[in-house]
Amino acid sequence: MRQNRMILPTLREVPKEAEVISHKLMLRAGLVRQLAAGVYTYLPLGLRVLKKVENIVREEMNKSGAQELMMSVLQPAEVWHNTGRWDDYGPELVRLKDRHDRDFVLGPTHEEVITALIKDEINSYKKLPINVYQIQTKFRDERRPRFGLMRGREFLMKDAYSFHTSWESLNETYDQMYKTYNSIFSRLGLNFRPVEANAGAIGGSGRNHEFMVLADVGEDTIATCTHCDYAANLEQATAHLEYAAAGVAPSADAPVFEKIHTPNTKTIDQLVSSLGVEASSFFKTLLYIIDGKTVAVVVRGDHEVNELKLKGLFDAKSVELADDATIERVTGAPTGFIGPVGLKGVEVIVDEAIANAGAGFAGANERDYHLQNVVPSRDFAAGRVADVRNVLEGDTCPKCKEGKIEFYRGIECGHIFELGTKYSVPVGATYLDENQKAQTMIMGCYGIGVSRIMSAVLEQSNDDNGIIWPMPIAPFQVHLIPVNVKDETQVKVAEQLYARLQQQGVEVLLDDRDERAGVKFKDSDLIGLPVRVTVGKKAEEGIVEFKVRKTGESQELTLEQAFEEILGLVLGH
Question: Where does the UniProt annotation place the signal sequence (predicted)?
Answer without folding.
Answer: none
